[in-house]
């Protein structure tokens, strides 16, 4: 009777409980690792406010390119076909040289996906061709770029732009300011580690969201440059208030003082008290 109770009742229950505890412990450690990886990505040093050429490499479908201004505004875009099976290398170099000179491009961001090595070789040839004034090239992770390019946020910003070109814009902006661009993407789509889909998704999403908010508030936000997605991560603000801030800024011009936030619809003293310390104003009456 005792052996039967142990083998059929107690042992299976204990084994189940033990496996559950070990699984939860392993999940907790994995989530901490993924959170650290995400923090490192978000707090990567920005290249700064410089005109940037973003390249989203491809073979058969071509390499998509986008030039963005120092403030991240789209200036020009195109598609080149330097690699197999097209081999239009000379034409691609001409297009790149023309855009770089026209828009005074200082940086080239190359996506690290398919054909990235071939594109790096092409850019190296381009730098030799231009000489000492050639832009600096940097390899950029394109994890999650396709998610952003197909999102409602990207569609609202670039309604008439092809999805693949939006990806090139995102790659360029990631080099300029990784944090400002990556907050637009679901943290779980950024690529924070292997087997992230095998653990507790609710706990992972909660932890990664906390990391994003902590990073935004740790670095601070430029009130006159920040996107709605970035502002919504600031303590005391939500998507509605962030949208109202951007709308007020577009209608009334740049903020010169933080107290002007009180003129934004639905942003009261409590929200102002919580968010003001995390908002910066460059070249204004306040830092």
UniProtKB/TrEMBL annotation:
Record domain YqgF/RNase H-like: where: 50-149
Pfam families assigned: HHH_3 (PF12836), Tex_YqgF (PF16921)
GO molecular function, a single term: structural constituent of ribosome
Gene Ontology biological process terms, A to Z: nucleobase-containing compound metabolic process; translation
Entry GO terms, CC: cytosol
PANTHER family, alphabetized: 30S RIBOSOMAL PROTEIN S1 (PTHR10724), S1 RNA-BINDING DOMAIN-CONTAINING PROTEIN 1 (PTHR10724:SF10)
Name of the protein in its database record: YqgF/RNase H-like domain-containing protein
Organism name: Nitrincola nitratireducens
């Amino acid at each position: 009777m005792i052996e039967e109770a142990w083998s059929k009742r107690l042992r299976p229950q204990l084994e189940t409980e033990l496996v559950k505890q070990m699984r939860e412990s392993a999940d907790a450690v994995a989530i901490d690792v993924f959170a650290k990886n995400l923090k490192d990505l978000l707090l990567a040093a920005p290249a700064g406010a410089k005109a940037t050429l973003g390249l989203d490499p491809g073979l058969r479908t071509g390499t998509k390119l986008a030039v963005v201004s120092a403030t991240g505004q789209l200036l020009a875009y195109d598609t080149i076909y330097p690699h197999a099976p097209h081999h239009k290398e000379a034409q691609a170099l001409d297009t790149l040289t023309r855009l770089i000179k026209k828009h005074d491009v200082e940086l080239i961001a190359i996506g690290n996906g398919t054909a990235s090595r071939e594109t790096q070789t092409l850019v190296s040839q381009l730098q030799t061709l231009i000489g000492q004034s050639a832009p600096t090239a940097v390899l950029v992770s394109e994890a999650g770029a396709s998610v952003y390019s197909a999102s409602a946020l990207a569609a609202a910003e670039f309604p008439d732009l092809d999805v693949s070109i939006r990806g090139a814009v995102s790659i360029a902006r990631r080099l300029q300011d990784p944090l400002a661009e990556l907050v637009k993407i679901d943290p779980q789509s950024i690529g924070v580690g292997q087997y992230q889909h095998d653990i507790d998704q609710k706990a992972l999403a909660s932890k990664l969201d906390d990391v994003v908010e902590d990073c935004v508030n740790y670095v601070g936000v430029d009130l006159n440059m920040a996107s709605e997605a970035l502002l919504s991560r600031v303590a005391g603000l939500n998507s509605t208030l962030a949208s109202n801030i951007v709308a007020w800024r577009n209608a009334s011009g740049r903020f010169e003082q933080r107290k002007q936030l009180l003129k934004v619809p639905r942003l009261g003293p409590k929200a102002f008290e919580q968010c003001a310390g995390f908002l910066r104003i460059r070249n204004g009456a306040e830092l």
